[in-house]
Amino acid sequence: MFKFIIFTFSFIFSSSFGGEIITSQNYTDSSQLLQVLLNSINIPMHPYIDFGNTAWVLTATALVLLMTIPGLAFFYGGLVKRKNVLSVLMQCLIALSVISVIWVVFGYSLTFSPGKGALAGFIGSFDWAFLNHVGFEPSPYTAAQPYARIPHLAFMIFQCMFAVITPALIIGAFAERMKFSAYLIFIILWSIFVYMPVAHWLWAQDGWLLKMGAVDFAGGIVVHINAGIAALMTTLFIGKRKNHLHSHPHNLTFTVLGTGLLWFGWFGFNAGSALAADGLAANAFVVTNTSGAIAAITWVILDWIFIKRPTILGVATGAIAGLAAITPASGFVDIYGALGIGIFASLICYIFVIIIKPRLSYDDALDAFGVHGVAGIWGTFAVGLYATPLVQSAYKGLASGSLHLLKVQSIAIISTIVYSMIVTTIIYWLINLTVGVRVDEAEESTGLDISEHNERAYTIIE
Questions:
Q1: Is residue 458 situated within a structural domain?
Q2: Do 252 and 170 share a structural domain?
Q3: 3 state SS for 349-366
Q4: Measured over all CA atoms, what is the biggest interatomic distance in the chain, rounded to whole angstroms?
Q5: Are 91 and 14 in the same domain?
Q6: How far is CA 402 from CA 258, 333, 397, in A?
Q7: Is 438 within a domain?
């Protein structure tokens, strides 16, 4: 009906002013039709709140929240010993609570508000603290829809869920051996001094990496590389778990449940980053599912080849690797790119988790670096290989004949690795010098559920 009205008016105006009749044949979005019509009669169009786009982004926000609680909580919780499962659930739940408050007080402002002076490209200001100037007006941030936007508040809360899950991912590195008090201080400081600056670099309008041309559609750099490198550093500093070589998942049923919830939530993570219910969101949805699926299949094949039987843990790990790898690329690649990204995500992560980790003998307990960090690096690099103008016309990868995107993506990867490595190290050592990071040997043997929280997940005797 809306297109019929536009066509009727376009016929009237074109007849009156000698212009060309506008049809809906080449326009699948009503806002595009309206824009073309208004341009044809020299009426400027301004950003407005689109109800459909708003509904989708709010739904996507809930999906991303689901990834942390209960998705990641169950995924990680099933992989630890049963005497530590509550500590993991607690760490995920408190991350949601603490980071949500920090975000609305000043975190969103530091990340997305315009910076000032020489630091403008590196960090925002406090102009939007306590959500000042963040209300019902159209968001200043958009993807492929310059006019049909969402409320600024909707964009803010959507981004909040990314800020929540990123430090929670790092739990996988130091699981079963970090003090809860140290963890609390760590996620607060890390979010402020690592997550917020890196997110500003790539997602704020004046971010230095964004201005250079680097892209990160849904968090391959900001979330996965950033958290993955922090996970590696904390793993190296905190040391190995007691008897870590004999540590086995206590409940793979939880892990599979968590995998399903993460996969489900990832559609909000990636497709929601289109910030509209449009073709770009649909593409991100399709390539996300495809990459996760082919990566899961690839890991099963590798298990079959090297250990002679497929494993449910392998399927889950492969799926997460594929989903993490497609995250930065989901708004830039088509189905061919998704297949390539998913296959190589499993291959590369399998090498890091199954071969490199045992040989180097570091205890990345739940493979936060080996899966999220490594997959994030590969996926970000792959944007420079597979980006196609068929998805977004402004972006071309090496397969489409351009080397520029590959260069700037490499700069973004290296910059994030170095920054996250250095600042995470400083934060860790400051906490270790003050409150101490690791529980003592007796508390670790007892389990963090009892020693840190005085609770049990199960009533059976250990």
A1: no
A2: yes
A3: HHHHHHHHHHHHCCCCCC
A4: 86
A5: no
A6: 39, 14, 5
A7: yes
Rounded distance between C-alpha atoms, residue 411 and residue 404, angstroms: 11
Helix axes 312-326, 374-386, angle to 10 degrees: 50
Q: Are residues 18 and 62 in the same domain?
A: no
C-alpha span between 205 and 335 (Å, rounded): 29
Query: Is the per-residue pLDDT at 371 higher than 90?
Result: yes
The mean pLDDT value for 366-382 works out to 98
State both tokens at 426.
Answer: 């400083």
pLDDT higher than threshold 70 for residue 35: no
DSSP state of 438: B
Contact 131, 101 (CB under 8 A): no
Q: Does residue 42 surpass a pLDDT of 80?
A: no
Q: Report the distance separating Cα 59 and Cα 296, nearest Å.
A: 26
235-238: which pairs have CB atoms within 8 A and are 24 or more residues apart?
235/173, 235/174, 235/362, 235/363, 235/364, 235/365, 235/368, 235/369, 236/362, 237/425, 237/428, 237/429, 237/432, 237/437, 238/173, 238/174, 238/177, 238/178, 238/428, 238/437, 238/438
User: Is there a single domain that holds both residue 13 and residue 73?
Assistant: no
Same domain flag for 164 and 218: yes
Q: Are residues 100 and 35 in the same domain?
A: no
> Which residue in 80, 104, 372, 122 sits closest to 225, CA to CA?
372
Same domain, 19 and 82: no
Residues whose CB falls within 8 Å of the CB of residue 34, separated by 6 or more in sequence, listed in order? 6, 45, 147
Domain assignment of residue 268, given as a range:
49-453
* Mean pLDDT, rounded, of the chain: 92
Q: Residue 356 sits in a domain of what CATH number?
A: 1.10.3430.10
Query: Which residues neighbour 74 within 8 Å (Cβ) at sequence distance 6 or greater?
Result: 254, 255, 257, 258, 261
The band of 15, judged by pLDDT with boundaries at 50, 70 and 90, is: very low
Both 174 and 285 in one domain: the answer is: yes
pLDDT, mean of residues 163-172: 98
Which of 24-28, 205-209, 239-243: highest mean pLDDT? 205-209
Structural domain count of the chain: 2
Residue 16, pLDDT above cutoff 50: no
Rounded to the nearest 5 percent, the helix, strand and coil shares of the chain are 70, 0, 30
Whether 56 is in a domain gets the answer: yes
- Residue 46 pLDDT: 85
Does the residue 81 lie in any domain?
Answer: yes
- 324 with 379: CB under 8 angstroms? yes
Residue 17 has pLDDT above 70, yes or no: no
